[in-house]
Amino acid sequence: DRGQIYRGRQDSSGEIGHSVIDIHGPPCECGGQGCLECFVSTRAVTARGQRLVDQEPGGRLAQAVVADPPLRPQLIYRLAKAGDPACEALVRDIARYIGIAAANAINLLAPDHLLIAGSIDTADTIILDEVGRQIDRLALPRLRRGMRLGLATAQEQAPLLGAAALVARQVFELPKLRRVTSGPEQDAAAG
User: Which pLDDT score is estimated for 120?
Assistant: First the structure.
């Protein structure tokens, strides 16, 4: 139903992080290979950031990590937004993978809105530009037409709000009532 949270079979919907983005990609903790999570998770972004620090020990990212350890994705996103070319290239690549997954989701679900949430939205315009580019390249034109791409206003709270909505719906949902009438046909069926 429109406007309802889609829960899927066994309440297991929403695992876009385990959508395969690159069939030749690295192995994922789920047992798959090339999942979105392999490219955009906190662990993956931190590892790529560390490689950048190792390659450019005098770069802005390395200097920022020395000044305020440990290396965190949010730092990479902030430096990208501030114009650091190495961090911006890294964030654009991360956004490219998100855009591929977003295009797949659009082709599958045809949503009216697609919202990006999490610490990556710190690099807002970079993310939206690259995700939008991938959507334009990969999503079916009729499905992307009129679809709005944006940043979730609830940011880090969005997953928690969704979970709370599911719990509230389950707790406060009225049980389905069957209509019970007494009459000759019910009495005959019972006897």
Answer: 80
